Structure formats: C-alpha cells, structure tokens
Amino acid sequence: MNRAFSLALALVAPALVAMTAALPAAAQERGGVRLRNDPLATLDVIDANRGCPLSSTSVTVGVNKAFGTGSSATQRLGSTAGSAGNGCRPLVSTQVAAGVNLGLGSRSQAGQSIAVQGQRGALDTIGFTRGVNIGVGAGSVANQRIQNVFNR
Fold this sequence. Notes:
With 152 residues, the chain is of the alpha/beta class. Helices cover 26% and strands 44% of the residues. It has helices spanning 3-31, 39-48, and strands at residues 55-66, 72-80, 92-103, 109-119, 124-135, 141-151. The strands form 2 sheets. It has a 3-stranded parallel β-sheet with strand order 1-3-5, with helices on one face. A 3-stranded parallel β-sheet has the order 2-4-6, with no helix packed on it. The radius of gyration is 19 Å and the shape is elongated.
C-alpha cells in the first residue's frame, strides 16, 4: 500500500465514523417513541417521569494512529453517564461508542480501548457501537476493544 493511500485512509476513516455516530441521535429526534402494545402504560411511564430529562445522548469517539516505521500509539477512552442524583432516568437514552485504530507504518503497533457506560432510558434505550481497526504494513499490529454498556 502506498503512502498516499494510507494518508487518505487515515483522513477519511474518522469522518465516516463521525457521520455514522450522528445517525442514532438524528433518528431519536425524528422518530419519537413507539407506543408498544399498551399505549396507556406508556403514558403512565411518561407521567411518572415528570421533572426528569426527556432524553440523554452520549457520544464517545476515538481516533488512534501509528504512522511511522516502528512507531507505537496507544489510546484509552472512557465515559460514564449517570443519573441526575434524584432517581430520574431519561425517557429515551442514546449512547454512541465509535473508534478508528490505524497501524499504518511498517512494524507499527496501534492499540485502542474505549469503554462507555450509561443509564437505560425509562421507555427506550439505543446503543450504537462501531469500530474500524486496520493494520497495514509489514509486521504492523492493530488491536481494538470497544465496550458500550447500559446500567439499569
């Protein structure tokens, strides 16, 4: 793989992850909450949730790259979204965890770990997890771990 293609890949991959990360949040704003089988039960949950946030959105995105020959790059990201402290849960919770990890140089090493933890929504919870992990170049190594967890 030539250097120009590697550079183009490194510049385009983060943009693609950022665009896909925005889709769940946009869907939440347009889609609303489906009323399930019992619309009255859904309305009861909404009524019981007065004074609490309607929605919560968390987006964690990481980009890690090792370009040079024999280079090494390590990245660790973590985010935690919890309750407001008064026992409130949002009606809808959306959480995005995305990462791009690139080992592009010969004998390069790239390692990425992303851990996201958030609170479930009272009515609906949307989790979106995506990763791009590429090791290109003779003897290059790329390791990636992305974890997206919801609490009760």
